[in-house]
Amino acid sequence: MTAEVPPGFEPHIRKSPVTDPWEPLYAKREGEAFSLGLRIAHSHCNARGLLHGGVISALADNAMGLACVTRMEGVSALTVSLSVDFLSVGRSGQWLEVRAVPAKLGRTLAFADARIEADGEVLAKAAATFRIIEVAAKAT
Prior knowledge:
Layout: E1 10-11, E2 26-30, E3 33-39, H1 53-69, E4 75-86, E5 95-105, E6 109-118, E7 121-134
Keywords: Hydrolase
Domain Thioesterase: 49-123
Family: Belongs to the thioesterase PaaI family.
């Protein structure tokens, strides 16, 4: 397993206190899809040495919200519901990719789906609903 970052991924510039301990995070846009990626490390794993479901859930939530708001202007998104189906396990050293796509964008609600893979194997699938809120313009 190599420590290289796959083509198309760049350092993720939108920082968050919840994901700061998991840095470095990478992002990629491809059409309507927004992906987050990272190399799974020991700090992402549970006591059994497997990728923690909380990391998968948090990154899926983050990626799906960003997939929605990057397709809209002047809005932010608050999670209303999040569901994750865990299908397999990830291990330290693997490349984790969370690929999110907006399913429907509305004025007050947005919906998105995500596919979570480690080295190309599907680990989980997720879906979320977001409350869309307008972001106040900054004063100059």
